[in-house]
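Title: Prediction job returns without error message
Component: structure pipeline
Severity: low
Priority: P3
Assignee: unassigned

Description:
Job completed but the reporter wants confirmation the result is attached to the right record. Sequence as submitted:
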Amino acid sequence: MKKICILLLLISNLIWSQNNKIQGVVKDSETFQPIPYVNIYSENELKNNSTGSISNENGEFTVINNKSKIVFSHINYETFSIESDGNLKEILLKPKNYVLDEIVISNEKPKDYLKKIIKLSKNKIDKNTLLKGYCREIVKVNNEYTKYSDALVDYYIKKGNGKANLVLGQHRALKSNNLINEDDKSIGNDNSPINVKDYVKNAYSFETIEKLLKSDDYEFERKIMKEANGDEYEYIGIIPNEESDEMLNKGYVIIDPKSKSILEFKIYTSENHLKNAKTINLLIAKAKRNNILVWSKFKIINNQYILIYSKKQVGMYIKMGKKVDHNFDYASDLFVYEFKNNVEIPDNGYSKKTLFEAGNSFTDNFWTKYNIFPLSENEEKFINSIQQK
């Protein structure tokens, strides 16, 4: 009888957790267009060192209904909160109207100011910290999906330097069923060049921004933006030299002026410089970088400076002999859903470069619980086509 009661309790908890999940979409209240990468959290979550969730590129989101106020936050929209009653199918956010939006006039150059902010942000990891996250990698060849992998990941960050030891939890790896001939096999063995062990370290090191700061091909524009409610932040635009014949990037850095912390940065290939992509000769191949995207978001939770989202994307053209003459696209997403302080750093961790190399090892459908980025229609079709065969 006792065993039956325990079983019924487990089933009840499972049903409750499934029914307790809320899905919806965030849209602009004026254009009704989806808003990607909106921060979503509940008041209860922040008290428990949870980071909340983020809407995907189509504005779609998934949250747990824990009977508390749900908050929707985006740098370009007014913050919106609503009681969690299970009915959040469509959330409309109003674009912000700034009472102050002007360039900062200062004796300190924006470039020098940004260097100082990076130095301050690097020093904010003052405890050995565990970031618990959901991570995924996607490989496409000639705009067709070839590989999809995801996993639960634990990044143990060392105090002071942001270097992390990665411990892998449950994981899965999916490969296209269409890779059947010899040419396909040669490209099917290709994994992401982005090292999963370095996702967190690279985000906290801000090395992508620092590389641009060392170049004479960029200007930096510092602005102060203040809302009607008194909230303000600093925005530093990264502007490439339009006359350059190099393939340059553009982007922005958002800074909290109170804590002098970087809250978000996004660096991506300038549309006007895509034409400058150059093919380089390697030992056994030719390669050309088509595009790049590096994007990280941070949040200050309970006085801790926490990475909550990191995205990397690289597009490459590779020609190798007669078998490989393709465009490759690699993308990775890391969402941190919880953190813990004062943890012991394990001696050993995951040693491989990509999630796909770990293969399949899972006891439940972990991706339905922890993946807060609802899959796109094409991603779902790809995964379903593999699982059904």
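Comment from assignee: result matches the submitted record. The chain has eight helices and 19 strands.
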